[in-house]
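for the recovery benchmark. tokens below, seq after
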């Protein structure tokens, strides 16, 4: 338990006239697999927090008695008050030797933890990390503490030794697991995603790959084509998006979907948007945009919002891109020069947005990504939470299995943007 929470509980419980008891050291839990961890969580009782008795009422069975939850401001009827798949107990008191609260976790505001390891000379700059952290902090996501945004903890941990830095991870996850087993602490596994800034995988020139959708692990490999900081930041957020349940079309696999204004769309992965007068800003889709028909593109009607998205929401998004080029600098609610011919065409025309050789595709309504994030890491995140369901109602753990994941945005190193 952090010193802050200790002082808070001591002061509050003294006021309430409660005695602190049940201060037991956490058990030394060996963690070898998610399923084993889940069974251990059910089998090993959590140490009682100060202020709780064995007989104290714990409605949600999260290990924190209701009277202490009242002090903390967490929901006694929910083991995970903020819905980030990290239980109130572990975000407040830690477990298994890991103190998430000391790392900044807040049981009343969504947190996402990622351990970042890197090959020699590939340590991400603070500017790269800040771009992604800022994007999450600016997310239109409400929290029980009254704030908005998600706290993204990109914990840069350690450099992979040169002897272990396989320059071509192939097969990617077989070789990745060798690194993960040596460098990723087992105590973090139920709470952290794990990523590595590596050189290359499977002999290609892909920018990165996620271990399924949603998932626990991902790799960023922009180094293979000497990627820029902007490309590194965009790819980090893109692959993390896959870990959080997003596909290349949001809730579908329609890549280059023109009405999908998200870093998950290849059009924006390396470039971002212009938001709040900042070029290169990263964002998942925060709007829902009406369907677009390739056979009847209209510059004058452009994009239409789908409730609850408004025209005002669309008017905040600039830097639109189609078919590999940024079009005239107007917002998503203005006239849009879709074919980038430097004029607004008065008549509808056909345009092959997704580059599949035909201009007859219809792209369905795009989703608000921020409202659709999946925090359970493909079933691997969410430990030490008795009574908290690990299921999100899916029949399968993955929306896209690891073996079905295609390499993300590949670049010819001789023509890197």
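predicted aa per position
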């Amino acid at each position: 338990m952090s010193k802050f929470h200790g002082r808070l509980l001591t002061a509050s419980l003294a006021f309430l006239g409660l005695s602190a008891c049940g201060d037991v050291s956490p058990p030394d839990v060996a963690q070898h697999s998610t399923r084993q961890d889940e069974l251990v969580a059910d089998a090993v009782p959590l140490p009682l927090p100060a202020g709780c008795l064995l007989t104290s009422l714990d409605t949600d069975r999260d290990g924190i008695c209701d009277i202490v939850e009242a002090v903390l401001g967490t929901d006694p009827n929910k083991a995970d008050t903020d819905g980030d798949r990290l239980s109130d107990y572990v975000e407040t008191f830690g477990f298994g030797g890991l103190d998430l609260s000391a790392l900044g976790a807040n049981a009343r505001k969504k947190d996402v933890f990622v351990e970042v390891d890197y090959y020699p000379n590939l340590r991400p700059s603070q500017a790269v990390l800040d771009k992604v952290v800022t994007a999450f902090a600016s997310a239109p996501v409400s929290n029980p503490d009254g704030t908005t945004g998600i706290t993204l903890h990109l914990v840069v941990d350690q450099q992979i030794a040169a002897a272990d830095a396989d320059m071509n991870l192939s097969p990617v996850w077989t070789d990745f697991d060798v690194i993960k087993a040596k460098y990723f602490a087992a105590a973090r596994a139920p709470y952290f995603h794990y990523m590595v800034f590596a050189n290359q995988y499977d002999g290609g020139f892909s920018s990165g790959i996620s271990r399924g959708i949603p998932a626990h692990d991902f790799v960023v490999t922009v180094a293979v084509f000497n990627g820029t900081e902007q490309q590194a930041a965009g790819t980090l957020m893109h692959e993390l998006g896959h870990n959080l349940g997003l596909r290349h079309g949001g809730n579908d696999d329609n890549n280059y979907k023109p009405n999908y204004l998200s870093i998950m769309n290849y059009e924006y992965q390396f470039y971002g948007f212009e938001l709040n007068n900042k070029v290169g800003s990263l964002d998942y889709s925060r709007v829902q945009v009406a369907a677009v028909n390739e056979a009847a593109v209209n510059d004058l009607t452009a994009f239409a919002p789908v409730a609850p998205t408004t025209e005002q929401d669309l008017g905040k998004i600039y830097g639109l891109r189609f078919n590999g080029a940024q079009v005239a600098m107007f917002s998503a609610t203005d006239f849009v020069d879709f074919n980038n011919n430097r004029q607004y065409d008065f008549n509808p025309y056909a345009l092959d947005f997704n580059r599949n050789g035909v201009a007859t595709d219809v792209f369905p309504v795009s989703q608000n990504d921020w409202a659709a994030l999946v925090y359970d890491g493909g079933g691997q995140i969410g430990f030490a939470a008795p009574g908290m369901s690990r299921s999100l109602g899916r029949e399968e753990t993955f929306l896209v299995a690891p073996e079905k994941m295609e390499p993300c945005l590949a670049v010819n190193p001789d023509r890197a943007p």
